[in-house]
Design brief:
Largest sheet: 5 strands, antiparallel
Number of strands: 8
Distance between the termini: 7 Å
Strand order of the largest sheet: 1-4-5-6-3
Number of domains: 1
Order of helices and strands: EHHEEEEEEEH
Mean pLDDT: 97
Helix content: 10-25%
Radius of gyration: 15 Å
Number of helices: 3
CATH architecture: Roll
Amino acid sequence: MAYRTRCEVRFGDVDHAGIVFYPQFFIYFHEAFEQFFNDAGFAYHLLIGERNVGFPTVHIETDYKQTLRYGDSLDIEVSVSKIGHRSATFHYAGFRHRDGVHACTARITCACVDMRTMKSIPIPDDLRTLFERFAS
């Protein structure tokens, strides 16, 4: 099962060619990542700001399949493809909303860290349970 959310393509997201500048997809993926936590009842800003649990990216692989333009929106499916002791790998599949065309994919591995020390920590049980709900 995958979590699904939508990101809008804004005017500032496109380059001179009129298409989404490729690094912008990383921002879309992170927006989907934050919304994944928020919609599950784990406000991401509180997770990192009060619980001091963060998930910095340590590895990323991305494939671009279709261009997006200003005015498009991207439906992003998020699933968890690997859950380790101190890290997790998230899979993102992006589809252009207006026609469902597969636009991009990414695999992003995040370490679980204590935000005060930036040292890796075991994934907390409640977050592990969340990740398991969306395991692929």
